[in-house]
Design a protein that fits this description.
Strand content of chain A: 15-25%
Low-confidence stretches of chain A: none
Number of strands of chain A: 8
Mean pLDDT of chain A: 93
Strand order of the largest sheet of chain B: 5-7-9-11-14-15
Order of helices and strands of chain B: EHHEHEHEHEEEEEEEEEEE
Strand content of chain B: 25-35%
Largest sheet of chain A: 8 strands, mixed
Shape of chain A: globular
Distance between the termini of chain B: 71 Å
Number of helices of chain B: 5
Shape of chain B: elongated
Structural class of chain A: alpha/beta
Mean pLDDT of chain B: 80
Helix content of chain B: 10-25%
Oligomer: heterodimer
Number of helices of chain A: 13
Distance between the termini of chain A: 47 Å
Strand order of the largest sheet of chain A: 3-4-2-5-1-6-7-8
Helix content of chain A: 40-55%
Structural class of chain B: alpha/beta
Radius of gyration of chain A: 18 Å
Radius of gyration of chain B: 24 Å
Largest sheet of chain B: 6 strands, mixed
């Protein structure tokens, strides 16, 4: 059974697209046929982060408007087998999407792929609601700060009410919390909300943290999903998250400060 | 000689059961059925297969009541008509013909009886130091034909941006009410988790309504339109289990 997963947050700039790119790449690299769809029509970004912007010919809107066939719009990733990108249109706006059209595209993708990852635009308007409408599971990307948590809470409410599963009284969408840009040092100083703080406020299962890392920015500029470099913490964080999502039990790293050389030597905390 | 054994086929016992009364105001089967459908849809579990009796007191004597058609209409709404009240003579015969039993008593005298009581202060309002309910706001009596309204119970968190309203009843919430959420009830509000959003009890002016919550971190609490904002909540009550009521026109918060 194909699974539709929406990457959503409400707030912008928390790392939805970074997460969508790394999450999809991670799942595909473990041997699952995966497609990642950019729902941010008008503000196309995913293709850049995935490094396939030069190969975009047709996009999601073309497919929905029946101007192109689905296979013409799908871009095959050059690094990972079984990974495809369905880009957004840069020239249209979100009104170009309609529920019926999106439903048809997802139905068709379900026949070919194991995982369909929907990268939601920010906000709670039409684009975001269409991205989440057909989801089976949701990754709620949240930064450890109050405004991001509040927006995530709002989105969780929508996931519970304004989706296909909710409207047809099916089992509710499974929501997972992903905390990105987590900085243990700042949490320790009380400058940043801790995992426990956020979990208490949102009350959904915890999938993991992605530690704040300058490497995320350079990877994004280079068009390489961070998950492909397991030498840096953010990439390791995403690999853990993907494995946990697929059912593997992995310990949570990055919740404690790394001990420095002297601390390790003297065993101080 | 058949010996009558001590085991009988049944026992006959009297019982006083609460039963829904359908007090007819018209004999138009269509409108009775249409209105009933709406009411049943509001509380399907309550009404499903519930027995009802027809009270025809308000139907003018000279009007013919099509009992059989009305009974059929009520059955289509998944209710079970079992009896008739305040029917006499030929009308009663027709009702019995339609399969209804005769219920005696339960006339206007009984319904009117509790009225004088409502002028006296209710004992429970003692702690609030208030007079009894105002005239015209008589508390519902056991003989009230309207079925009791079930309170509304929520088991999942009420999240930012969501509004939940429990009309004419209590609201019971078994999960957090998060910041930016709004919970409203005409009756009391019970929250067995933190209250971080807004809670408005007694939304239609019931000054006896209360709010209970396990941890007070609200943006706003209101009883019958009198409210306190987050900044006005007493510091020593914050994040504590509290009850909130109206006393002398002021919102009072006290520990649970």
């Amino acid at each position: 059974m194909a699974k539709v997963v929406v990457i959503t947050s409400g707030k912008g700039g928390v790392g939805k697209t970074t997460t969508a790119a790394s999450f999809a790449t991670g799942i595909a690299s473990l041997g699952h046929k995966t497609v990642v769809i950019d729902f941010d029509v008008g503000l196309r970004n995913l293709d850049l982060v995935m490094g396939c912007e030069r190969r975009v010919v047709y996009d999601l809107v073309n497919v929905i408007k029946k101007e192109a066939k689905l296979h013409q719009a799908l871009i095959k990733d050059k690094r990972v087998d079984g990974l495809y990108v369905l880009p957004a249109s840069q020239t249209r706006d979100k009104d170009a999407l309609d529920l019926e059209g999106v439903g048809e595209v997802i139905e068709e993708l379900k026949k070919k792929f194991e995982f369909i990852i929907c990268d939601s635009p920010a906000g709670i308007e039409r684009g975001a609601q269409l991205a989440m409408y057909f989801a089976d599971e949701a990754l709620v990307v949240t930064n450890p700060e109050v405004s991001s948590v509040r927006d995530s809470d709002r989105v969780l409410g929508l996931l519970d009410a304004k989706t296909y599963r909710a409207e047809n009284n099916l089992e509710p969408i499974k929501c997972h919390l992903l905390l990105t840009r987590y900085n243990v040092k700042q949490v320790k100083k009380g400058e940043m909300l801790s995992v426990d703080d956020v979990l208490e406020l949102l009350g959904i299962p915890f999938l993991g943290v992605i530690p704040e890392s300058k490497y995320v920015l350079s990877a994004s500029n280079a068009g390489t999903p961070v998950v492909l470099d397991d030498a840096n913490e953010a990439g390791q964080g995403y690999l853990d998250v993907v494995s946990r999502f697929l059912g593997e039990d992995r310990p949570h790293r990055f919740l404690e400060e790394k001990k420095g050389f002297f601390k390790r030597l003297f065993g101080a905390n | 000689m058949s010996s009558e054994s001590s085991e009988q086929a049944f026992e006959l016992k009297g019982t006083a059961a609460t039963i829904t009364v359908l007090r007819l105001k018209t004999v138009a089967v269509d409108s009775i059925e249409a209105d009933l459908k709406i009411r049943v849809a509001q509380l399907p579990h309550f009404f499903h297969s519930a027995p009802v009796i027809l009270d025809v007191e308000e139907i003018a004597e000279d009007l013919d009541i099509p009992f059989k058609e009305i009974v059929a209409g009520i059955r289509r709404c998944k209710l079970v008509p079992v009896g008739v009240r305040n029917a006499k003579g030929r009308r009663l015969e027709q009702a019995i013909d339609a399969g209804l039993g005769e219920l005696k008593g339960g006339g206007p005298a009984l319904r009117a009886a509790p009225k004088p009581e409502s002028k006296a202060p209710t004992p429970r309002s003692k702690d609030a130091g208030m007079a009894g309910p105002k005239d015209g706001e008589a508390p519902k009596t056991p003989m009230d034909p309207a079925p009791p309204r079930m309170s509304l119970t929520l088991r999942t968190p009420v999240r930012g941006g969501q509004v939940t309203y429990a009309p004419q009843t209590d609201l019971v919430i078994l999960a957090p009410v998060n910041a930016g959420a709004e919970v409203i009830a005409d009756g009391n509000i019970h929250i067995y988790a933190p209250l971080r959003g807004r809670a408005l009890a007694g939304a239609h002016g019931n000054e006896e309504a209360r709010i209970f919550c396990q941890s007070l971190d609200a943006e706003l609490v209101s009883i019958a339109g009198t409210y306190l904002m987050a900044d006005e909540l007493p510091e020593d009550m914050r994040n504590k289990p509290v009850k909130i009521h109206l006393e002398g026109g002021k919102v009072v918060i006290s520990p649970l």
